Structure formats: C-alpha cells, structure tokens
Amino acid sequence: MTSRSAQQLRQASFAAEANQFDDDVIEDKRSQFDRLQQRLPQMYARVFPDRRAARTIVVIPSLTLNPAELAKIEGAHHYEERMLFLLMLLQLPRAKLIYVTSLPISPSVIDYFLHLLPGIPSIHARRRLTFFSCYDASPLPLAQKILDRPRLIGKIRDAIVDPDAAHISCFNSTRLERELAIRLGIPLYAANPELGHLGSKSGSRQVLAEAGVTTPDGVENLFHEHEIASCTRCHQIGGEGGVVGPALDAIAARKAEAYIRE
Question: Scanning 24, 27, 153, 220, which has its CA 20 to 30 A from the CA of 125?
Fold first, then answer.
C-alpha cells in the first residue's frame, strides 16, 4: 500500500470517528455506556456462576489500531481468529455465541474448534453458534466496519436472545467498541476505553506511584526519540547525560512526586 493510500485510510477513519464522537454528544455517550456497564455486576452475580443459565456472548475480535498501522500487517484480518478459543464457552449448555469477522472463517477451522469441546456433541454446539461477516478485507478495524453497516448491527441485535444476559467480548477496548456496545444495547466485558492510558507503561507507573508502590527509575509520557534525547541533555542516568539538572538515578526514592513532576 502506498503512503498516499495509507494517509487516505487514516483520514477516513479519523473523520468517521470524529463524526461519531463530537464534543456535543460525548457526554451522552458516556452516560449511555455507564448505564450499560452497570448490568455487568448483576450478570456476574446471577448468570456467570450458573453453568445452566442462558447467556449470549458477542465476540468482536477487532484489532482496533490506526488503519495506517493495520495496513502494514499482511493478512491482518486473520488475527480475528485468535479469539476462537471462546467457542469453548459453548460447553455451557444454554450459552449462545455470536462471532463477527471481516471475512468468513474457513468451515474446517470452525469444525476443529468445535471438536475440542469436552462432552458436547459438535452438532449441538453448532446450533448455538452464529457467525456474521462484513465481507470486507480493507485495513480498517473490524469495529469500524461493523459500525459502518447498520443492517449488520440490526442482524446482530436480532440474534441476541436476552440483552440482560448478554455482553460483548473484545480484543481491545476503544471508543469504537464502546460505540458498538451502545448501538447493540449490551455491556462491554472490558475496561472503560477512557481508562486505556492506565494500561500503558507510563499509566501503570502513575497508578503504582499513587498506590505508594516503588517502580524502576524512569520518566513517563515520552513518545518520541527527541523527547528522550531532551531529557539526557539536562539529566544524567547511569552516569551519562547532561549536568544542568539533577541525576535521575533512584530519584523516585529520593524525591517526592511533586518535585519530579516539576
């Protein structure tokens, strides 16, 4: 793919996301999503412990990354098969599973997983398994492809037996998955995407610092090489770097957080 094509894909994705998450509606989206997520504790207490309880799991194995990055991965849509292990949930006798992909999965691959089910006839499990495909091999995230297809969303919604006993299982949680949860009317079995930064290395250090847990020496929120270089121009780490500012070795143990941030 040419750099021009990748740029066009990036711009198209960003434009679509901007339309869906305009500042005027973002607060309403948050409220809708929060209301959906409040169902999860009830499901966890009522449905999850009971092996015979009816439930629907909607699997969205979207590798939700920047389209320009996805375009670099040959056969990226095959990564959507990595969540086929969730077919093992069909050993629960009243569980229904809905699996959505960019392109149809080979029947032989599906049969392979179904034959791994312990003590469950594959024909019985197959009746409770529904696959939907976008028939779209473009390097856009699967979640975006689904959002672009209202009729497909309608089919998925119609296949859900009871929304109060259903949830989405996803590969990663972003604003696209959150929007899909809102449109399907079922919660997302994942962290709120607005907390996603806490799962990064910098975010994890922030959480640990707030909890009073020491971490190895380091600096947070560095995204580019020039930012790293700018730190070492003034500070030393391991005896290397500038002498304008204090050395950063063991600074977390020597100084308070406010001092370090300043």
Answer: 153
Q: What share of the chain is helix, strand, coil (3-state, %, to 5)?
A: 55, 10, 35
* Nearest alpha carbon to residue 17 among 62, 51, 67: 67
Which residues fall within 8 angstroms of residue 123, CB to CB, at 6 or more apart? none
Angle between helical axes of 39-46 and 23-37 (0-180°, round to 10): 20
Q: State the number of CA atoms in the 13 A half-sphere of 183 facing the CB.
A: 20
Residue with tokens 């960003």: 14
Identify the pLDDT of residue 3. 45
What is the torsional sign of CA 70, 74, 76, 77? Answer: positive
Task: Give the 3-state secondary structure of residue 235.
Answer: coil
Length of the chain: 262
Could you tell me the CA-to-CA distances from 91 to 4, 6, 120, 121 in Å, in that order? 48, 42, 6, 9
Here the tokens at position 47 are 């449905």
Task: Compute mean pLDDT per 10 residues along the chain, 262 residues long, and list them.
Answer: 49 51 73 94 93 96 85 85 96 96 96 91 93 94 96 97 96 94 96 86 86 80 64 64 61 54 54
- Cα–Cα distance between 81 and 79 in angstroms, integer? 5
Contact 17, 9 (CB under 8 A): no
The residue assigned the tokens 């929060």 is 34
Whole-number pLDDT of residue 66:
82
The answer to whether 70 and 138 have CB atoms below 8 angstroms apart is: no
Token digits of residue 56: 């629907």
Distances (CA, A) of 185 to 21, 36, 174, 178: 17, 7, 17, 10
